[in-house]
Every structure is written in C-alpha cells, then in structure tokens.
Amino acid sequence: MTGTHSGRAFYAGLLEALTEIMGSAKGYLRDHGAMVAMLSTQVGTEMGLSKAECSQLFFASVLSDMGMIGLAEDSWENPVPELPPEVRERVEKHPERSEQRLRHIPHLEELVPLVRHHHEWWDGSGYPDGLQGDAIPLGAQILRTCDTVVALGQQRPQRSPLTRSQIIEVLERGVGREFGPGVAGTVLRLQRAGDIPGFEHSAFRHKILKAAEHVLPNEVSPLSGDQL
C-alpha cells in the first residue's frame, strides 16, 4: 500500500490496537469502546448527522477512555457497588486525561470536545465542566448515552448484564437528568424495536477504515515517537 490508503490504514490499525490494549489493561473494557463506536454511529445516523460527523463520533467513542489506562485497575475489578471517594476522584479525571493524549495526535483535534465532555449530564451534574443541556456537544450527548447502554449490557464485577427491558427502564429514568431527550428518545426507539445489532469484530474493522476516510486528510504523515 502507498500514499493515502497506507497512512489511513496505519491510523485505523492504531485505533484497533488501542482497543486491544484497553481490553488487556482492564478486562471489563474489552470491546467496550468498539461497541460504543458502532452504536454511536448508528444513533448519529438515525439523528441525521453527516457521514463526517458520524465518523468523528466513531473515532471519539474508541478514544474517549484512553485516560482510563493505568488508572486504579484494582479498584475497578473489586465487586463493590461504589468506588471509594478518592478512587472515584481519580477516575473522574479520565476524560481530561483522554483529551490531553488526543491533543498530541495529528488530524484528530476536532474530536477533543466529544472526548472531554462524554461524561457531562443533561442536568449539569456531570463532569469535568458541569455543562448543561444543549451546551453539551451533540456528539458527546450521543456518546454518553451509548456508553451507558453498552456498559449496562456488559458483565461487571459487581453485577450481571442487564436485560434489554432493564436497560430501557434505566434510560427512561435518566431522560432530562443524565440523558438529553432527543438522544435518549432515539436510543429508546431502537431498543424497543430490537434494532440494535449484536457486535461483530469484522464489522468494526470495516467501519474503522470507512470512518478514516472522513476523519483523516488525503495525505497522512507518519506519527513521531512522541506522538505514539
């Protein structure tokens, strides 16, 4: 491969490798970012986002939890209902940690608001900036909601996966509090209709390259050692 395609393929491979690293660092996060990416782009498409916006959302979904790597893994593996306050304080820094790392990767600067604000709540009680309502970027709203849906459907040390009906109940309770009404309404419609497909690695790999076509420029320069 040469030129454009090889550069984009390198970035795509790097993104896929990151999902593997995160999965090995925190077993419960295996495939989490990839699953969120697939669901987020489905929701973005349903809400009328452009291909470029959905592609940015796809990349941001995978990269949003970079800041979790090396952050209190032992606490996350303990089957406790709530993290100790000092651990939670460290964990709540992960959007900013992810943002800081992302700022060093060329061509991905537009993803920064989505990554920084993916834990903001509609009522302003989220973090890191306490944004409220439509002040939260739409992509970050979608990411927040889809991140929750995927997490609820996964095994955790302290609980078993929730059923689809249980996830719907959580979403309904969170509308106007944690989740924006427009985004939550779209996700609820897909959930109730059973229109959210299961996760497939092959579909994820294909989607990475398609998303790269809209996120990355025609000519992509190699990354330096510092950037890696």
Mind explaining what this structure looks like?
With 228 residues, this protein is mostly helical. Helices cover 57% and strands 0% of the residues. It is built from eleven helices and no strands. The protein has helices at residues 3-25, 32-46, 51-63, 73-76, 85-91, 94-102, 112-116, 138-152, 164-174, 181-193, 201-215. Helix 9 packs antiparallel against helix 10 (181-193). The two termini are 21 Å apart. The model is unreliable at 224-228 (pLDDT under 50).
In a nutshell, what does this entry contain?
The protein has 228 residues and is mainly alpha-helical.
Give the topology.
Blueprint: H1 3-25, H2 32-46, H3 51-63, H4 73-76, H5 85-91, H6 94-102, H7 112-116, H8 138-152, H9 164-174, H10 181-193, H11 201-215
Helix pairs in contact: 1-11, 2-3, 2-8, 3-8, 3-11, 9-10
Portion of residues in beta strands equals: under 5%
Q: Please give the radius of gyration in angstroms.
A: 17 Å
- Global morphology: globular
**Largest pleated sheet:** none
Q: Which spans have pLDDT < 50 for at least 5 consecutive residues?
A: 224-228
- Which structural category fits the helices and strands? mainly alpha
User: What is the element string, with H for helices and E for strands?
Assistant: HHHHHHHHHHH
Specify the number of helices. 11
Helix content: 55-70%
Overall pLDDT level: 84
How many angstroms does the end-to-end distance come to?
Answer: 21 Å
Number of strands: 0
